[in-house]
Amino acid sequence: MKNSKIRKGARVVVKRRLKDKWKAKEWYKVLAPKMFGEVNAGETVTDDPANLIGRRIELGLDEVTGKLIRGSNLKLLLVVKEVGQNTAYTKFEGHKMDNGYLRSLARKGISKVDSKVEVLTKDGQELSVKSSSFTLRKASGTQKKLIRKIMQETIAKRASSLELGKLVQEIILGKLSSEIYKAAKKVYPLRRVEITKTEVK
Question: CATH for 99-200, among 1.10.3380.30, 3.40.50.2300, 3.30.360.10, 3.30.479.30?
Fold first, then answer.
């Protein structure tokens, strides 16, 4: 019985400590980067603001655009760079497409052409860009090589003429994919082009 009371007392102490620790935590508003208008993208909690610096946050595109863009298969990757007045300020770290969505595009009897290119934006930001083109039918090795070349050259050329914020906007709105599609379909009929992943270096 004595041991039982000790264990029960210990549980009470632990509960109090957990309760006190939770009370010490504060909620912080998370703001999207300037390229997304610094809109309120949600909230996060911590007992020490310093712990928020470097915290990575993954958000759906609709959460950042205020649901203006729905049904997107794209996730934004943000990282907290600064904290002040119960607000966490973030910067863009990259994006990624949903793997399930990409698998649905890779149907039997077609070709999937993947590309990866390191680019430098007009404002000097280094960016790794991955993209995929999906053909309507099986393409030959030569055709896939030409499509990949167009993908890489189009991305590099566009990146060099735009600042990071503008380039990211063109990527998430599908403008860059559309530009690749128009150029590459002259080589072989395409079904879809997607910028599948970006990462700021």
Answer: 3.30.479.30
User: Taking a C-beta distance cutoff of 8 angstroms, is the pair 179, 154 a contact?
Assistant: yes
Token representation of residue 105: 């595009």
Cβ atoms of residues 128 and 201 within 8 Å: yes
Per DSSP, the three-state class of 91 is strand
Domain boundaries, the chain: 2-97, 99-200
Q: What is the pLDDT of residue 60?
A: 86
pTM above 0.70, yes or no: yes
Rounded average pLDDT over 176-196: 97
Identity at 62, one-letter amino acid code: D
CA 188 vs. chain centroid, Å, equals 30
- CA–CA separation, 14 and 2 (whole Å): 19
Closest residue by Cα to residue 112 from 122, 102, 125: 102
Distant-in-sequence, close-in-space partners of 17: CB < 8 Å, separation ≥ 6: none
Strands (E), 13-84: 26-31, 40-46, 56-60, 74-84
What pLDDT, in 10s, does the model give residues 95-119? 999 999 999 999 899 999 999 999 9
